Amino acid sequence: MAKWTPISLDEVKSYPLQERYNKVKVEDFGSTWQPGGSMNLWLKSLPKILAGNDFAEIVDQLVRAAASKKTNILAMGAHAIKVGLNPVILDLFNRRIISSVAMNGAGIIHDAEVAMVGGTSEDVAGQIGTGKFGMAEETGKFLNAAISDGSKQGLGLGRSVGAMLIKENFPYNRKPSHARIENPYRPSVESLCHIPVSCIDLNALTALYIASAAFCLNLLLFRSFSS
Question: What is the pTM of this model?
Answer without folding.
Answer: 0.66
